[in-house]
Amino acid sequence: MNSLLYSLAIAAILTFIIDWARPQEAFKHFIWKLLNGNIPYRHFSFKPFDCSLCLSFWTTLIVTLYLGEGLLSLLYASIAGYSTSFISPLLRALSQVWNDLLYKLTKITQ
């Protein structure tokens, strides 16, 4: 049961990092500049590092295999990957509520 909670926590954290913070964009620019020099940047996919579903699946699989879950690791990794489709809209809604709350608080104090 703990492994399932770990899986969902990993999915939530990685969804926040990949979908909101987007550190992989700076890394992709660095890789492009390193490999292509002065050629103008074109967007490219850097899977599994720019996909929250992929990264959640593989990270959860590695962690649960390390914890010794065996075949259940695949199930936990699949649940973590699938849960990103629910976590991302939830984070978006929470962000909107937070922004609205801050807007109202700043409007009251002025």
Describe the structure.
This protein is mainly α and 110 residues long. It has one domain (2-109). 79% of the residues lie in helices and 0% in strands. It contains 4 helices and no strands. The protein has helices at 2-21, 23-36, 52-66, 72-109. It is flat and about 60 Å long. The mean pLDDT is 89.
Morphology: flat
Largest sheet: none
Q: What is the subunit arrangement here?
A: single chain
Mean pLDDT: 89
The secondary-structure class comes to mainly alpha
Can I get a quick summary?
By secondary structure, this protein is mainly alpha-helical.
Defining key terms:
about 0% strand, flat, single chain
Topology of helices and strands:
Elements: H1 2-21, H2 23-36, H3 52-66, H4 72-109
Helix pairs in contact: 1-3, 1-4, 3-4
